[in-house]
Amino acid sequence: MPFSIGTWIGLSRPVVVAITLTFALPAASFAQIRVLMSGGFSAAYHELLPLFENTTGITVTTATGASQGDGPNTIRAQLRRGVPADMVIMSREGLAELLAEDRIAIGSDVDLGRVPLGVGVRAGASRPNIGSVDAFKQTLLRAKSIGIQSSSAIYLRAKVFPQLGIAGALEAKLSNAGAAGVAAGEAEMIVLPVSEILPYPGVDFVGTIPAELQFVQVFAAAVLKGAKYPEAAQRLIAFLASDKATPSVEKTGMKRTQLH
Description:
20% strand; five-stranded mixed β-sheet; globular; D-Maltodextrin-Binding Protein, domain 2; alpha/beta; 11 helices; 2 domains
């Protein structure tokens, strides 16, 4: 029922103030952004998200998935089966696949950080030698189990392990374990982006893999075509790419420089 003048006058002052403020707030304050993201940017994202929500009034719900791969819960697989989302945060390799499927709003993609591959082991475990190509090779061969994931797993399987001549020897010991898996003892070591190792409790960061084998990934954000709240999603992307967010991003092992 519409408010009449008499109804308005009859309202208590707190109610009038609440109604006035409600209509005065910008529409973006009511947005509820849905984000699909992979693990590489996750630690920085979760640290920064409360500040964004508190300062904008925009709420954010987050679901996760791998940037690449053949599993049912990759970001691409979720989007293909209709999982609703306004934006994605993922590796550039995975984002290229979404661009090829015409799922990304053209010109909305922004690089957030670049990060090399590193090695992690369970906290307190002996740290393996990865200081040279041969040392890294021997460490991989001696390990009982190795966790690899998503885009970096594709690179390791397609490039590094064949280059070292040990692809066949490693296949039976490879798993999808991440930082939580190595912390729980499900894998002896992990080879993942540094940002998926360094911030996590229960895991010791050993170091980056040798430069001759290195794969530096760029993680980026983009608005999806058909997003319900594209403007709010763009605000979140701008915030994550801002100077204010840089300290949180770089302490996870990512760098803002040399993104292109």
